[in-house]
Amino acid sequence: MSMQEMLRIGDDGRSDALERELKEKLRLRGNASPAKCTRQEQRWRSDHGIVDARERFMQAYGRLRDDLVGNDSCELTDEARRWLAQMIDYNVPGGKLNRGLSVIDSYLLLKQGSEVTEDDFFLACVLGWCVEWFQACALLLDDIMDDSHTRRDQICWYRRPEVGLRGINDGIILKCHILIMIKKYFREKPYFLDLLEIWSEIALQTSLGQMLDLIGTHTGADDLAKYSIEGYRRIVKYKTAYYSFYLPVANALLLSGAKLQDFSDLKDILIEMGIYFQIQDDYLDCFADPNTIGKALGHADNNQIEVLHKNYGKKDSSSVSEVKRTYAALDLKDIFSEFECRCYNHLVTSIEAQKDCAAREILKSFLKKIHQRKK
C-alpha cells in the first residue's frame, strides 16, 4: 500500500472495526516476551541479583566506556581522557535506549528455546550500545547542523561554552568507537565481515539521508512547492528508518547465526515501521516537518497558502504561531489520526503474513512500542 493510499480518508466505521479485529490478532499485551525469556530472567535474578535487561545493559555501558577511555591507540593526556569520559556520558546513555535494548529483545526472541549464556548476552549488549553510540553521533552532529538548543532535556553538547564546534570532532570520535568495539568483540566470529558490511552500509545510508534532509530544508524554505510526501518519505527512510529499526534487528540476526538475506520481508516491514515512527515524531513535534507542509498545501486555500509562504521555516515565535494556527484550521490532526489507523492496520496485516514465528514476535514488539505513542 502506498503512502498516499494510507493517507486517504475512507470508511471510519469499517476502519475502526478492522483495527479492533487486527489488534485482537496481535494480542498486544503488556508482556509480549515468550516464556523462555522469563525463565532466563528468573535464573539471572537468582544467580546475579539483577532484575531486568535494562540494568544489565547499563552495567555493560560502564565497562565499554571505561575500555574506550582507556584505549591506548593514542597517547592521551589525563585531561583528554577526562574530556572523553565526560563527552561519552553526556551524549550516549541519556535517551530512552529503545534502539539498543531492541537488539537484546530481538536476540532473545530469536533464541527462544535455546540457552543464552552470560557471554552471549554481553555480546548483545555490545551491539546494542554500538547502536546507541551511533544514535549519539547522529544527534550530536544533527544538532550542530540544525543550530539546535536542547537535546534530551539538557543543553546540546556543542552549546556548552567549553565545547562549541569542537563537538564536530567529538561526533566523529563516537562513530570511530563503534568500529573499535566491533573489532574487539567480534573479530573471531564467523559473521564478522557481515557485521562490518551492514554497519558500513547503514552508516552511509544515514549520512545520505541527512544530506537529502539538508538539501530539502534549504530549497524548500524558498519554494514550498518542492515539499512532497514522496520526498519526505525518501528522507526519513534513509535518515531514520534504517538505523533506528532495521539495524538493531540485523545485529540480532547476525548474533543469532541467521543470514540477513533470509529475512528480506522482515527488513521491508521494519523500514515501513520506521517511516511511520518518524511521521509520528514530526507530528508530536508540532507539525514542523516537510510531510505536514506538503499535506497542508494540498488542503489550503489561497489565503492560507500565503500565510504558510510568509511564515514557514522561520524561528520567531509569531511565525511559528501563525503556521500552527493554519495547521489547526486545516484539521491536520484528523488527517494524521486517519493515517495512523490505516498505517497500523497495514503493518498488522504484513506482520501476520510472516511465516517465521520469531520474526512475527520481533515485529509485534516494535509495533507495540510505537503505536499511538504520545512522546
Automatic annotation (TrEMBL):
<keyword id="KW-0414">Isoprene biosynthesis</keyword>
<dbReference type="GO" id="GO:0005737">
    <property type="term" value="C:cytoplasm"/>
</dbReference>
<dbReference type="GO" id="GO:0045337">
    <property type="term" value="P:farnesyl diphosphate biosynthetic process"/>
</dbReference>
<dbReference type="InterPro" id="IPR008949">
    <property type="entry name" value="Isoprenoid_synthase_dom_sf"/>
</dbReference>
<dbReference type="Pfam" id="PF00348">
    <property type="entry name" value="polyprenyl_synt"/>
</dbReference>
<dbReference type="InterPro" id="IPR033749">
    <property type="entry name" value="Polyprenyl_synt_CS"/>
</dbReference>
<dbReference type="GO" id="GO:0046872">
    <property type="term" value="F:metal ion binding"/>
</dbReference>
<keyword id="KW-0479">Metal-binding</keyword>
<comment type="similarity">
    <text>Belongs to the FPP/GGPP synthase family.</text>
</comment>
<keyword id="KW-0460">Magnesium</keyword>
<dbReference type="GO" id="GO:0004337">
    <property type="term" value="F:(2E,6E)-farnesyl diphosphate synthase activity"/>
</dbReference>
<keyword id="KW-0808">Transferase</keyword>
<dbReference type="InterPro" id="IPR000092">
    <property type="entry name" value="Polyprenyl_synt"/>
</dbReference>
<dbReference type="InterPro" id="IPR039702">
    <property type="entry name" value="FPS1-like"/>
</dbReference>
<protein>
    <recommendedName>
        <fullName>Farnesyl pyrophosphate synthase</fullName>
    </recommendedName>
</protein>
<dbReference type="GO" id="GO:0004161">
    <property type="term" value="F:dimethylallyltranstransferase activity"/>
</dbReference>
